[in-house]
Amino acid sequence: MRLTDYLDKGASLDPGAPSLVCAGEVATYAEVQDLGGRVASALAANGVEPGDRVAILSANDPTAFTCVFGISRAGAVWCPINPRNEAAENRELLELFGCSVLIFQASFAPLVDAIHTALPQLRTLVCLDADVPWATGWEAFLATGTEPVDRHCPDDVAMVVGTGGTTGRPKGVVLTGTNIETMTATTLMSYPWPSDGGRPVYLALAPLTHAAGVLCFPVLCRGGSIVVMRAPDVGGFLDHVEQHRVTHTFLPPTLIYMVLDHPSLDGRDLSSLQCFWYGAAPMSVTRLEEALTRIGPVMAQLFGQTEAPMMISTMAPSDHFGPDGSIARGRLSSAGRPSPLVRLAIMADDGRLLGRGERGEIVVRGSLVMRGYLDNEAATAEVSAHGWHHTGDIGYLDDDGFLFIVDRAKDMIITGGFNVYSSEVEQALMAHPAVADCAVVGLPDDKWGERLTAVVQLRRGSELDPAELTSFVKARIGSVKTPKQVAVWADLPRSKIGKVLKTEIREQLLDVPV
User: I want to staple 84 with a disulfide (CB 3.0 to 4.6 A). Which of 68, 124, 336, 496 is the partner?
Assistant: First the structure.
């Protein structure tokens, strides 16, 4: 299926149903189809051929998201550009992708102005919401389209997405329609949906350029509504859940912690929620248990990566509970079970597949896995060694088939001759009631080889003696895994999608004498 086919499927159920909702404005399926068709026609009139790449640079916005369906209907390839990137990074991505068209919001005009002259392949610039002297206005762009267009992309390519790479040059991940279809089918079969003929209502607060965007496709093919929040606002998030009777939503753990800390949470009506996805980073078991109690038995995990989008493993709300209805605490640190349309294994460094309980790299096969890295055969071959896609995550499968991710391969710390996985230490730190978030890294040490070092961010209004915290952790996981050094920071550095940047933390700590 093309990306626009999910919209068309929803429209076939009821063209007059609300499709995109934002700030009191509602666009029906028929209206989104019409605008998407006009975008496709305008792209073709501006020389876009099937297989050409078209970028969108925008915050969460219904019109910008509608352009995705126009790009797809024109047979072109959607290249989402993260609006939180610096200008140089976006220039590098646009050059890597070879985009011929960039559609952008006026708020990013200074960024685009700074880079577009260095991108000769970028033939067409379109501003969505203002007049910019060196770009085509939105209505003028749409007016160029005169003939209906409905084309398919060669080789089934749907998207090219930049890796989040916090180190080195980004890579372009080539995702096909089959990859997205596999992700969508897995989502539909693995999580709860309205069973009474009702339509899902999905709240998109997280960026539509990332997980929040691709999770729209299963909602659309069921004829559901996408409620778009233009900017992150936890209070507004809770308002939207109540007002729109939201059934599905996604947030990374950092934002879920903010929801849990919001003073009005316990007085809100969240009874419409059926599936509250969390993912993109490890979640504190302590705070997940709190969410299951205070938000409701609706938390649902997903684990994936750009190269195998979203659904390598899944954990439905029901998997968070035992047969007697009590919280299954032993599972809360898992990433669920391998999803139905993926083969998953644990691999040793020499390519051997390991048994249950043995730790190694998580590798996967199947139609969820990307076609490869754009114009980078060497990197594609490296990540596909031994015929499996290598995730870079270390983990194991327990006897019940649940996947436990213990660390990124590069984040394992060897201290005093012992392998310590930072995620286990971070879970112990997060169990302390004063800790809002944390990161554990290894620093060079003459005695230990690597010195286990923790940086913690405290909950608002909390105070904590580092010695108290180390005693707390030692009682839970022992002295070997207890940080030798603890620093309290007001905030942790994060990537554009909210992941804690351990590389930056390590660099800052190395600049500070012990």
Answer: 496
